[in-house]
Amino acid sequence: MIVDKMTFFYKFLKSPKRVGSVTPSSIFLANAMLKNVDWENTQSIVELGAGTGAFTRLIQQNKKSSTNGIIYEQDTEMRLRLERLFPEMSFHSSAENLFEDIRDLGLEQVDCILSGLPFANFSQTLRDRIIDAVVQSLRPGGTFIAFQYSRQMLPQLEKHFSDIDVSFVPLNIPPAFVYLCTK
User: Fold this and answer.
1) So what CATH class is 40-172?
2) In whole angstroms, what is the distance from residue 39 CA to residue 119 CA?
3) Total-model pTM
4) If we measure between CA atoms, which residue out of 121, 173, 131, 122 comes closest to residue 154?
5) CA 172 to CA 147: how far, in whole Å?
6) Could you report the per-residue pLDDT of 133-159, keeping only the tens digit for each?
């Protein structure tokens, strides 16, 4: 949607370290991010950094009605818009609080966590806190699927996940790497 692209571009110009890209993720990247989700056995799915909802739409289309959808977006305007579009999901603002938030929702751990967070723009301390929250929140055998515009996060992810598969999505602006990590 043109509105999503304009909103995203405006947010990027206003705060490039928090938004991380000039345009929302393409359908090619969204499909690459979600193709390995085992929808039949996923009871809980989290999205970190939802932006304008490129992945959220596909989550809504594919998840079972009984699956908990938990969405994180720090930008208040974008989060409120997503809350209006997807009222059946739970919304939060800070990925650092992931573990506490899922506990507040009555969950021990979750099956899948998707991330569009621009880790390259974060301090190492913030990256550590978010990855620690992801690892703590993810059930054994669960998946963490993240995209990045470089391979910078690979060494950090290798410290926490038993299996990592990296793929490349050239049909995105900018082209992106998708990390499929299994706990």
Assistant:
1) alpha beta
2) 26
3) 0.88
4) 131
5) 11
6) 999 999 999 999 999 999 999 999 999
